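Duplicate of #3305? Posting structure anyway:
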């Protein structure tokens, strides 16, 4: 293999970062006949496998299963006890393989991907330094994810708060937990630790889940309060101190001091680019935010950025989607095959702009794809918005007594297609892929009308929403 100048290269592709996005980029390159190496300084499998997606959902699931049983007569009587916390933590540990990556390493080997252990750093175009060894490649992919950001609160860093890593890997459940942040991770961990027995307080600067439809945050906030969580919105801590006894004190702007054994900060993330050596190549950090739909970094013909590091969509599934597009695009470019980089082409991450699915694994869940009403109006689109009570659908009432939820479609009047969908309710994440297909496929509403939902399922909400659009909306 040779680089663009005709010089011999060690690999066709080197990927820095062995999380899900990095693994996919390398895998798709190898499947296309290229050689690939992946560089990792921590655990192969990345944040999602060990400190985010998998352990967090494992912590949540047992409590949600117990709550689900308690909503059904007959099952309620059999679910009178409390969670076995040790068993929940042990199940969480199983999903992280005890924070060992031998299984993931074996997968790399089976896929024909070379693993380079150590910190990867760009030292020249197409050159990655790992320890004392420099490796060259025809293309390099950055897949280094994101890292948490601490807000500028006096004393916060010195108090050694938990981040999401500490929260998802904790060996004990604190009697009291304060969560700073009302986004997805903070909300999910509030539910998890509440179910495990912590007295939880959530401090959110704005409304809960502020990027979603307003009613989503309202229904989730109501559920937290019903579980005894002290939820305070419109609140910003003024100072944090950890005393010699280990107890954390959080002082609010009005002078109130809240105390807890642990403090979790979940207020945002930034690209994980420290030490990557971008400055060696004159590449600004902001350039990673400007990748094209093949994930190529502007001003280069060899550097790609996939996943959280490019800030397009901080979601594992979107990072993997980008990586598949990038790996295939790299293969096409390096082998001289046709490049399908136009909208919805095989080598383009078009869905990042229009059809990003996302789930908050709270109870009720929040599942959404595409644009919210606010986002569509900000874009100046002529839209119709239809909402329906999810609990009124027969499948929902069978699913649990007192089922509470809501659903929304944001519809482009000009094209008569769905731009966005939001579902809030128990287990609504299973409704989301149908909505994603409708949005990504730009399925005309008059055709979607003929996609008949099975009865009695919660999916019948699709019929009710379309009825509301066709028969209740002024057209």
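Output from current build:
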């Amino acid at each position: 293999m040779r680089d663009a100048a005709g010089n011999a290269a060690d690999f066709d592709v080197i990927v820095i970062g062995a999380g899900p996005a990095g693994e996919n980029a390398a895998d798709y390159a190898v499947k296309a006949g290229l050689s690939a190496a992946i560089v990792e300084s921590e655990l192969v499998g990345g944040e999602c496998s060990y400190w985010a997606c998998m352990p967090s959902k494992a912590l949540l699931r047992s409590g949600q299963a117990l709550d689900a049983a308690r909503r059904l007569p007959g099952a309620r009587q059999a679910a009178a006890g409390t969670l076995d916390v040790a068993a929940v933590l042990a199940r969480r540990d199983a999903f992280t393989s005890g924070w060992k990556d031998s299984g993931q390493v074996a997968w790399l080997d089976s896929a024909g991907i070379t693993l380079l252990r150590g910190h990867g750093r760009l030292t020249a175009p197409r050159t990655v330094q790992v320890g004392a060894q420099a490796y060259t490649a025809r293309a390099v992919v950055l897949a280094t994810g994101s890292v948490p950001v601490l807000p500028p609160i006096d004393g916060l860093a010195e108090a050694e708060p938990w981040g999401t890593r500490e929260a998802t890997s904790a060996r004990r459940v604190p009697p009291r937990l304060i969560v700073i942040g009302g986004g997805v991770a903070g909300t999910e961990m509030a539910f998890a630790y509440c179910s495990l027995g912590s007295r939880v307080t959530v401090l959110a600067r704005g409304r809960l889940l502020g990027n979603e439809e307003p009613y989503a945050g309202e229904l989730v906030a109501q559920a937290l309060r019903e579980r005894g969580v002290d939820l305070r919105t419109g609140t910003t801590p003024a100072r944090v101190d950890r005393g010699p006894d280990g107890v954390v004190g959080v002082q609010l702007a009005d002078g109130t001091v809240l105390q807890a054994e642990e403090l979790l900060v979940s207020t945002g993330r930034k690209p994980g680019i420290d030490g990557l050596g971008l400055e060696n190549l004159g590449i600004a950090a902001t350039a990673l935010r400007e990748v094209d739909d093949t994930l190529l970094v502007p001003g280069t013909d060899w550097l790609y950025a996939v996943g959280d590091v490019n800030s397009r969509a901080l979601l594992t599934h979107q990072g993997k989607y980008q990586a598949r597009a990038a790996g295939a695009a790299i293969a096409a470019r390096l082998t001289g095959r046709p490049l399908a980089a136009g909208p919805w082409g095989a080598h383009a991450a078009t869905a990042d702009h229009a059809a990003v699915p996302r789930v908050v694994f709270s109870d009720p869940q929040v599942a959404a794809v595409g644009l919210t009403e606010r986002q569509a109006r900000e874009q100046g689109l002529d839209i119709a918005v239809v909402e329906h009570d999810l609990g009124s659908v027969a499948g929902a009432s069978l699913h649990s007594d007192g089922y509470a939820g809501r659903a929304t479609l944001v519809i482009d009047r000009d094209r008569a297609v769905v731009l966005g969908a939001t579902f809030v309710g128990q287990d609504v994440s299973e409704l989301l892929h149908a909505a994603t297909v409708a949005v990504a496929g730009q399925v005309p509403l008059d055709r979607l009308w003929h996609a008949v939902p099975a009865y009695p399922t919660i999916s019948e909400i699709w019929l009710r929403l379309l009825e509301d659009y066709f028969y209740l909306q002024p057209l």
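Confirmed duplicate; merging threads. The chain has 16 helices and 21 strands. The chain has a mean pLDDT of 96.
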